[in-house]
Amino acid sequence: MTEAGINRLALHAVHEALGATFALHAGWRLPQTYGDSEDEYARLRSHAVAFDRSDRTRLLVSGEDAGTVLGAVFGEAAGELEEGRAVRAAALDAAGRIADLALVARTGGIAYIVMG
Known about the structure:
4-stranded antiparallel sheet; Alpha-Beta Plaits; 2 domains
């Protein structure tokens, strides 16, 4: 963290070097644009693009009840994943409203990675 509690992406210096303008979102200084949006779009369509998602949460969930817990939070599909498989899932709050979206991946045995 820098700038009095503002988080920066792992590739912040690269974004700066490429001319990004930044905005604050949920405590993170995130790139918003790299200049002319039409030029950005043309480059996106004709070149490779990398997305820096280092501001996203990553959790390791493991143990005998990991599948049951993830199933309760993200639904049956997340709790019954086969090894090496992943599913996009919505976490619901107590009222049944979507609280978050995540990618749940079963890495092996009783271990899962949740990326929000």
